[in-house]
Write a structure and sequence with these properties.
With 307 residues, the protein is α/β, with parallel strands linked by helices. The chain has two domains: 188 residues, 3-Layer(bba) Sandwich (FAD/NAD(P)-binding domain), CATH 3.50.50.60; 111 residues, 3-Layer(bba) Sandwich (FAD/NAD(P)-binding domain). The chain is built from eight helices and 17 strands. Strands 1, 2, 3, 4, 5, 6 and 17 form a seven-stranded mixed beta sheet that branches. A five-stranded parallel beta sheet has the order 8-15-9-10-11. The relative contact order is 0.18.
């Protein structure tokens, strides 16, 4: 007999773990599918999560998983989803080992992935001294020399203006177009502009000492901040037919319900604010909405049985 769950959660990060916790406490039968490596796994520390500021991401997830153990209706598998189909009632889900299960509801917490540029040495420094989020890592490089590089969606100057609250020692690389307002800000802020893009990173075990521009010029710095495009880490939402909005984010309503009935989404895949604490809260909100949906179904089923 194939397993049937009240909810299957796809993704085992902060959003998925938080949703599993709330649904477990609601005595719902849940399968949490955790495909492994999280987006922040490369980081030495995570920040902005009250009571857990500075903790290693792996340690945070280990604590969260341990706190699911008392809830016997929550089952966690280190697996990915091979196939998923919307049925007239619920979903059919095939796991990577070939087993099939059924679920009344699905929650996608699959996250986003960074489309990183081709820069020599980036893999070594990624998450250690190369970053994308000032709120996550700006404090650690306060008052230090940093390099900044933008993309087609957000200029390096825009990112530099955000980082200016942490440090004034900034060089923007690869900036070829400057508006009049930006020129005025550059003049007054003393931020330096280099038109050549970054070719490579000079580092010692992931700790940046300089960036080398196309053409060979080196710029001393202790950190690099990038603005990079994001895309859905998983194609499950598209396979289910969920509406996708601006910047490839999954569209949801105020209750985290997607355009597909019974399919909810939470965490980084639905928002532009990528903080662990925000993802966790998003998972909680989705879990409450999902339990409310299940409650209404339970009430209807009970009324029909008494009739």
């Amino acid at each position: 007999m194939q397993d049937r769950y009240d909810a299957v959660i796809v993704g085992g990060g902060a959003a998925g773990l938080s949703a599993a916790l709330l649904l477990g406490r609601s005595r719902r039968h849940v399968l949490l599918c955790d495909g492994g490596l999280a987006r922040n796994a490369c980081a030495d520390e995570m920040h902005g999560f009250l009571s857990r500021d500075g903790i290693q991401p792996g340690s945070f997830e280990k604590i969260a998983r341990a706190q699911l153990e008392p809830y016997v209706t929550v089952h966690r598998q280190e697996t990915t989803i091979s196939d998923i189909k919307k049925l007239p009632k619920g979903f059919s889900i095939v796991l990577e080992n070939g087993t099939t299960c059924f679920s009344d509801l699905v929650l996608l917490t699959t996250g986003m992935a960074d489309a990183l540029p081709r820069i020599d040495g980036l893999a070594r420094s990624w998450g250690r001294s190369t970053f994308v989020c000032p709120y996550c890592d700006g404090w650690e490089v306060r008052d230090r020399a940093i390099a900044v590089s933008g993309d087609s969606a957000r200029s390096g100057i825009d990112l530099a203006q955000e980082l200016y609250g942490w440090t004034h020692d900034i060089v923007v690389c690869g900036q070829t177009e400057i508006t009049a307002d930006q020129a005025k800000w550059i003049e007054r802020s003393k931020v330096r502009i280099e038109s050549s893009p970054i070719h490579s990173i000079i580092d010692d075990d992931g700790r940046i000492s300089a960036v080398e521009l196309v053409g060979g010029r080196r710029i001393s710095c202790e950190a690099l901040f990038l603005s990079v495009p994001l895309h859905q880490r998983s194609d499950i939402a598209k396979r289910l037919g969920c509406a996708i909005g601006e910047h490839e984010r999954i569209k949801t309503d105020d209750f985290n319900l997607t355009s597909v009935s019974g399919c909810f989404a939470a965490g980084d895949c639905v928002t532009s604010i990528h903080q662990v604490i925000v993802a966790a809260a998003s998972g909680v909100r989705a879990a409450i909405a999902m339990n409310n949906e299940l409650v209404q179904r339970d009430v209807k089923a009970l009324m029909q049985s008494r009739a």
